[in-house]
Amino acid sequence: MNATNDNPAAPVVPRRPRGWVVGMCLAGVCALAMRLWPGPEILDDAYITYRIAENIASGKGFVYNAGEKLQSSTTPAYTLLLSLLPRAGVDVPRGSFVINALAGMAAAMLLFLAVRRICGDGRAALAGALLFAVYPGSVVYSIAGMETPVFELFLIAAGTAFLFRRDWLAAILAGILPLLRPEGLVVSAILGVALIVAKRNRVWAYGIVALLPLAAWIAWATAYFGTPIPHSVSEKQKFFTDPRFAVGLAGFLRQWAYHFYSLFWGNPVNGERINNTRYAVILLGGAPFALGYAYQIFKSAVVRPRALPLALAPGLFALACILGQAGLPFPWYFMPTAGLFIALSFCGLFALLRDGLARRPWGAVAAGGAVLAAGILLAGHHLAANYKWSPRVMPATLYDHVFPHREPAYEEVGQWLGAQGGDDRDIVLCAEVGAVGYFCRYKVWDQHLTQPPWAPERGGALVDKYRPRFITFMAIYPPVEEVKDQPETVRVGRSQVPYRKVFCVNKENDPRYTLPRERHNVLVYERED
User: Fold this and answer.
1) CB-facing half-sphere around the CA of 485: CA atoms within 13 A
2) CA of 225: how far to CAs of 82, 384, 428, 444, in Å?
């Protein structure tokens, strides 16, 4: 007798999708929507990467200024990815916006899978993934064009691959991480130790695979630039190591605690918000989730060692970032592990509640329901408190911890400069080089002006030696007078090179600008001769 049912009249019962598929897709769609809805709001640093990517695509080399082999990128892998866009006829800023949104979607889906694998409960997994999807700090750096979302995705993917025993994939991803951000070395080291413990005698093969991308980049960058260390990293380290900016042990603990607190209640880390939030509020608001995170580390060590790299990565990453910056609270360094912090905290809270109710038949159901309810409520809190909904959807936090709306003024200046004629040999001294350089295409040098261009020693020395055609004076850096009150002509440096005021952009009547008008001005001087 034929075991198959060949009766054409037999009803076909469609298979219902499994709950975990629905949960994973829900988290991914939510993350994608939150990152596409606001539209792009590009920050200045992203334009640096865009310009290098376009120079690669046009054959000018891996450089910011044509003909100058200076290592200017902290994210070579992301830059190379974006360099493929012009060759496909895709605008780099727009393509970056879409890539970042897709990376956020994939990260949310992987977080769901990882937490579900660790704790075995789809509701706890959905709680963490949904809160990550709407977390304003993550959305900000997605729409801002930074490499953060792609770095975040690779970080989560590497830990998830190890969790699911895809060790070769984990090794490959660990090798790429430092090429997306230098801080990726922290997570690569964690995964490296985990692979050593897991593989023992066969670890060398995995080590070679993991080190190959980084070794290849170091060899090439050293030959091409003379050093693999980005210029911005070496310059910032001088700033970070200044003892005036050290916060001490108490300040370090406050920053670390606020970072954890901010994921669930507040906006991302910045110095003013840390200092203005009561320590008691920070500790009480973050304590339940810190407890969940700590309990998850314990559970991972005892029950599921494969989850330890994911569990340890957020804490050690934040530790390395704060110590490496001498305590300076720059929010973008904290963002890549925000999703893991959130998801693992919910995972640990679920395990804590479930273990506490282990003798109750309904214990696991109650624990999952409570954690999911908490995730939905906190997601709603972020949507209500940390987003602006009119005239367009926008994470309000974007303008709370970065200088608001610099880039439209920079773009206007860059386009004006580009319309003045000349070529890429003309030099522009500039306080921030991203948007101005991207739109004017001249040779743009960063001089970190914090005073009028005829005052700082560094600016004067550069003028004496190179006689740049333009100097920009950006009034976003206090303390300054309004740029419209600056003199019409100035003489710069010891050689008294003459410059005249040729352009001033003042956004005082633009409704997009929220800071006092003197902080929106950009002034341009041109060499008179």
Assistant:
1) 6
2) 20, 48, 22, 18
Say what the pLDDT of residue 215 is.
94
pLDDT of residue 401: 45
Sign of the Cα pseudo-torsion (138, 450, 229, 56, in order): positive
State the DSSP H helix or E strand holding residue 193, giving kind and residue range, or none if neither: helix 184-199
At 471, which helix (H) or strand (E)?
A: strand 470-474
CB 427 within 8 A of CB 468: yes
d(CA 466, CA 347): 58
Looking only at Cα atoms, what is the longest distance across the chain? 103
| Whole-Å CA distances, 175 to 10, 169, 170, 180, 294 | 54, 10, 9, 10, 28
CA distance linking residue 37 with residue 134, whole number of Å: 11
CA separation for the pair 34, 56 (Å, rounded): 31
Supply angle C-alpha 381, 377, 163, rounded to 5: 110
In which region does residue 448 sit, left (phi positive, over 0), alpha (psi from -120 to 50) or beta (all else)? left
What string of DSSP letters covers 365-408? HHHHHHHHHHHHHHHHHHHHHSEE-SSS-EEGGGGTSS-TTHHH
**pLDDT < 50: residue spans in the chain:** 1-8, 10, 13, 401, 403-404, 449-455, 478-480, 513-519
At 333, list the tokens. Answer: 């360094």
Report helix, strand or coil for 317.
helix
Phi-psi region of 58 (alpha: psi -120 to 50; beta: other; left: phi over 0): alpha
Q: What is the DSSP letter of 14?
A: P
For the record, the structure tokens of 233 come out as: 């990293």
For strands 443-446 and 427-430, give the pairing: parallel
Virtual torsion, Cα 408, 412, 418, 419, nearest 10 deg: 150
pLDDT score recorded for residue 475: 60
222-226 long-range CB contacts below 8 Å, 24 or more apart? 224/62, 224/69, 225/69, 225/70, 225/71, 226/69, 226/71
Q: What is the pLDDT of residues 290-330, one digit of tens each?
A: 999 999 999 998 988 999 999 999 888 888 877 776 566 66
pTM (whole model) above 0.85 = yes
Which of 438, 430, 431, 505 is CA-nearest to residue 469? 430
CB atoms within 10 A of CB 21: 11
Sign (positive/negative) of CA torsion 313, 397, 510, 490? negative
* Residue 13: count of CB within 10 angstroms of its CB: 6
CA-to-CA dists, residue 238 to 241, 244, 296, 459, 479, angstroms: 5, 12, 37, 18, 22
Q: Strand, helix or coil at 3? A: coil
Nearest to 422 by CA among 435, 441, 407: 441
Going by C-beta distance under 8 Å and a sequence separation of 6 or more, which residues neighbour residue 429? Answer: 445, 447, 449, 453, 459, 462, 463, 468, 470, 471, 472
Rounded Cα–Cα distance for residues 146 and 140 (Å) = 9
Tell me the CB-side half-sphere exposure of residue 479, using CA atoms within 13 A: 0
* pLDDT given at position 234: 67
